[in-house]
Specification:
This is Carboxypeptidase regulatory-like domain-containing protein. It comes from Pedobacter psychrotolerans. With 209 residues, the chain is of the alpha+beta class. The chain has a single domain, classed as Immunoglobulin-like. 21% of the residues lie in helices and 40% in strands. Strands 1, 2, 5 and 8 form a 4-stranded mixed β-sheet that branches. A 4-stranded antiparallel β-sheet has the order 4-3-6-7, with no helix packed on it. A hairpin with a 5-residue loop joins strand 6 and strand 7. It is flat and about 85 Å long.
């Protein structure tokens, strides 16, 4: 009887220590994501002409503001300037216009999340890098309409009162105790703006937020 108990204990220990192998493993289900693209044909020649060198300059400042609990920018909050952020400039062709309108489609929120530019359309762009004050410049621009976009990453820090316990006195009263703690939360804001150069040689200033 003692031998049987020892054998059973060894068998259980061996089973626990030995990894289990299966011939078949059911894969996790992945959400099917349908990509949406503009139906207008992208005109690469038009985009190249619009991005040809001119004599105008687009100068801007990129920034955002902390969000409220409802997800809106706090109007009185200080600006958070885009530091070393890439600003992308697209010529506003009919293809880009339709892409932008698809993204703003309020009838289908899920659809708005998965609207893409074609590889050819994305290739026809200019890029600028901001300084620590969020400033950026696109020189040598021609008259025309352009779309600016950037993804601004920032961390919002704050404090809150954390409940730590309750104390009781000899008269039946109680006091709740709190300790102030710090927290931080990471955000990424998509900031974008349309800008138009009306005359060759002018300097156009824009706030990208």
């Amino acid at each position: 009887m003692q031998f049987e108990k020892c054998f059973l204990a060894l068998a259980i220990a061996f089973t626990a220590a030995t990894p289990s192998f299966s011939q078949y493993k059911e894969p996790e289900k992945k959400e099917k994501v349908e990509a949406f693209y503009p139906e207008v044909t992208f005109d690469s020649l038009q985009a190249k002409r619009m991005l040809a060198k001119g004599n105008a300059v687009i100068k801007g400042v990129a920034y955002t503001k902390p969000k409220t609990k409802l997800g809106y920018s706090a109007p009185l909050a200080p600006r958070i300037y885009a530091n070393k952020m890439t600003v992308v400039l697209f010529p506003v062709t009919p293809y880009v216009e339709e892409w932008y309108n698809l993204r703003k489609d309020k009838e289908n929120i899920r659809k708005r999340r998965f609207v893409y530019l074609s590889k050819d359309a994305y290739r026809h762009r200019l890029e600028a890098i901001t300084n620590s004050d969020g400033e950026f410049t696109f020189p040598d621009m021609k008259p025309g309409k352009y779309f600016l976009q950037g993804l601004l990453d920032y961390t919002y820090k704050g404090t809150y009162n954390a409940y730590t316990g309750t104390g009781y006195n000899n008269y039946g009263g109680q006091t709740d105790y709190y300790q102030q703690k710090q927290y931080s939360k990471d955000f990424q804001d998509r900031i974008e703006e349309f800008v138009e150069v009306k005359e060759d040689g002018e300097i156009v200033k824009v706030n990208l937020h």
